Amino acid sequence: MNHAHLFEEAQRFLAGGVNSPVRAFRSVGGAPLFAQRGSGKYLYCEDGRRMLDFCLSWGPLILGHAHPEVCAAVAAAAHNGATFGVPTRAETELAALIIAAFPSIERLRLVNSGTEAVMSALRVARGYTGRQMLLKCDGCYHGHVDALLVRAGSGVAELPQASSNGVPDALARLTISVPFNDPATFTRLIAQYHDEIAAVILEPVPGNMGLVVPDPAFLHTVRELTLRHGIVLILDEVISGFRLGYGGAQHRFGLVPDMTILGKIIGGGLPVGAFGGRKELMDCLAPVGDVYQAGTLSGNPIAVAAGLATLRWLERHPRTFTDLEHLVTQFAQQWRQHSPCTINAIGSLFSIFHTNRPVRNYADACAQDLDAFAKTYQQWLARDVFMPPAPFETAFVSIMHTPEDLQCLLVS
Ligand code: PMP
């Protein structure tokens, strides 16, 4: 089936033809790919093509599409009933696995998306501190939470205005956004507003302005000043959790946040998010405390089964993370010999920017040549390679990818 035709049909029924904006391929042109099925590193499309997938559903599929252990776990869970509205043992098991990997988390709660996890964590931070302001970094994306659509990355980075229409000014005014990797500006704003700031939220390894590698000194400045002023530090590890390493970016950079946001990999491709942190903070939540948060399908048994299968596989194969990082690092070196375009890489993540200057923050990322990106993108598509279809995104590899697969990206 022709994708342009399918997209026209979709636009008759779905807003913009999609259920999430970047799927519309606006920044690369043409109709989106329509997936029929996935297997390992390949996405099989409705037009009969088999694409080598470096988007991997935007990160969750570290084991590739339709991994047999994940499929078996999902099937078994589905046969037992899709949802119960009472607790299950599997939810406790998933929480225990996550907490073993992230010692900064003493208690957590499962939700259905990264956005929901962020929204809930912010409420906890505000409830706990009694303060209202938030501080984030330019180009970091934390889901479509009202208060954080201020100089946000990912699909929002493509919008002409810095944030979204429909966000009340009163809420946007409560959010300060500072450049990433810039300890001086961060320090200045904390000095000015520390009494009013409930939480600092950041992607410790930003993946939504394209991939940016953090300066460890910046991360440690953030931790030091938030501790000093009783500000809740929330690390959004929706992308980096169980991907930069089993313990995420916080393990790698030796950071102990107050709260952590997880998503993507912990759901093994099904809708799961989580937020957790120090017991004292998490005890603010109902039914123990007075911060309300709830969800009919939170901790859904089928989603939890997929997450458990994925995390158990990763736990049994601890070398996965170094192997994937080796794959990506080797490729980054080759890319640098091949092209003047900047490549950022860390763990199993990488981004190619159409600029020959270093990219250390959102302003740098915005200096890339978007037309050149769109042109390169068409070359990738012509080679049956599916990269994330937007310039402010991160590419992902899975355990199924090989060095030869990465060579396919070396277009001129
Ligand atoms: N935080 C980060 C760092 C993300 O990358 C994303 C989504 N890509 C989110 C939060 C929001 O997650 P979701 O799309 O599941 O709501």
Mean pLDDT: 96
What is the distance, rounded to the nearest whole angstrom, between the alpha carbons of the first and last residues?
30 Å
| Class derived from helix and strand content | alpha/beta
| Count of individual beta strands | 14
CATH-derived topology of the largest domain: Aspartate Aminotransferase, domain 2
Unreliable runs, pLDDT <50, ≥5 residues? none
Tell me about the biggest sheet?
7 strands, mixed
Strands of the biggest beta sheet: in what spatial order?
4-10-9-8-7-5-6
Question: Can you offer a commentary on this structure?
Answer:
This protein is α/β, with parallel strands linked by helices and 412 residues long. The protein folds into two domains: 155 residues, Aspartate Aminotransferase, domain 1; 248 residues, Aspartate Aminotransferase, domain 2 (3-Layer(aba) Sandwich). It contains 14 helices and 14 strands. The strands form three sheets. It has a seven-stranded mixed β-sheet, sandwiched between helices. The chain has a four-stranded mixed β-sheet with strand order 1-2-3-13. The mean pLDDT is 96.
Summarize the structure in short.
The chain has 14 helices and 14 strands. The protein is an alpha/beta fold and 412 residues long.
Write the layout of secondary structure elements.
Elements: H1 3-11, E1 35-39, E2 42-45, E3 50-53, H2 68-79, H3 89-101, E4 107-111, H4 114-129, E5 133-137, H5 169-172, E6 175-178, H6 183-193, E7 197-202, H7 216-228, E8 232-236, H8 248-253, E9 259-262, E10 273-277, H9 279-282, H10 301-316, H11 320-338, E11 342-346, E12 349-353, H12 362-366, H13 370-382, E13 385-386, E14 395-396, H14 403-407
Parallel strand pairs: 3-13, 5-6, 5-7, 7-8, 8-9
Antiparallel strand pairs: 1-2, 2-3, 4-10, 9-10, 11-12, 12-14
Helix pairs in contact: 2-10, 3-10, 6-7
This protein binds 4'-deoxy-4'-aminopyridoxal-5'-phosphate.
4'-deoxy-4'-aminopyridoxal-5'-phosphate binds next to helix 4.
